[in-house]
Recover the amino acids of this structure.
């Protein structure tokens, strides 16, 4: 399992009953988690949450806020991110991705040369910040304009407002095809595709139907001396070995190796790990 203990401003205090009890900096949230099918380890800890997200029987859900600012900042090592309660339970940061941020930074720092990175489905830019922090030039692509603005704000929080980052609001597949035609190349590629989504012009994305084609297209964007290709997945039923197989087959001409595991978070009350998706990493 890929995990990290570097995110000191985040704590998975307890989980169970289909929920997580989490500390984000100074604030405690309760959010749904379908993986936590066991009972809570310490029910007394759940009584003083600052906000609770509850799912509706009709779909979606809502936050019940007791004591919470509109937004606040958290730190993961020397990285800083803005967080806030969003619709569909999210906060703008996926803490289990911290191990991937460490992997990205390690690969860029170890290269000891200029590195260019493409970050697809880049959301609020945590991976973009991680790459830019090590001096990489980054192309940040997301279909949601609001998320791209949030990513710019996160870059500014980290003193990276002037860093060599291109922010693109576009459908990932269409953008990749244009980059191929333009002859651009990247040393590292990051993608965190949704299970299902729509692009700015209504383009439909389904992970199980489209990810293989997307990886094959992205392989044409790799430089002659690539460093890494990182894929995260939160799609139910897709094992870590699935994107690993596609990476291994598609990138075989480059050599290297693939490592694929679940992403996890350590639970404070038990010392065990909550599975939170998966990641496949190709590197050489």
């Amino acid at each position: 399992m890929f995990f990290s203990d570097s995110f000191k401003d985040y704590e998975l205090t307890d989980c169970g009953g289909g929920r997580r009890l989490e500390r984000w900096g100074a604030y405690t949230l309760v959010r749904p988690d379908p993986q936590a099918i066991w009972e809570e380890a310490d029910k007394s800890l759940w009584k003083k949450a600052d906000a609770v997200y509850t799912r509706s029987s009709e779909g979606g859900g809502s936050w019940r806020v007791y004591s919470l600012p509109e937004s606040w900042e958290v730190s993961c090592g020397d990285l800083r991110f803005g967080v806030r309660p969003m619709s569909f339970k999210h906060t703008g940061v996926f803490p289990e991705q911290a191990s991937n941020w460490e992997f990205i930074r390690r690969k860029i720092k170890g290269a000891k040369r200029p590195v260019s990175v493409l970050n697809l489905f880049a959301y609020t830019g945590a991976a973009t910040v991680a790459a830019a922090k090590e001096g990489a030039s980054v192309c940040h692509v997301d279909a949601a304009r609001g998320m791209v603005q949030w990513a710019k704000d996160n870059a500014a929080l980290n003193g990276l407002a002037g860093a060599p980052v291109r922010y693109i609001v576009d459908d990932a597949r269409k953008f990749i095809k244009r980059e191929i035609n333009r002859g651009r190349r990247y040393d590292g590629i990051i993608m965190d595709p949704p299970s299902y989504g729509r692009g700015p012009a209504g383009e439909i994305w389904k992970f199980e139907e489209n990810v293989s084609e997307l990886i094959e297209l992205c392989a044409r964007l790799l430089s002659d001396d690539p460093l890494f290709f990182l894929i995260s997945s939160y799609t139910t039923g897709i094992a870590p070995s699935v994107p690993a197989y596609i990476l291994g087959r598609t990138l075989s001409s480059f050599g290297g190796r693939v490592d694929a595991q679940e992403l996890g978070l350590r639970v404070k009350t038990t010392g065990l790990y909550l599975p939170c998706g998966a990641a496949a990493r190709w590197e050489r």
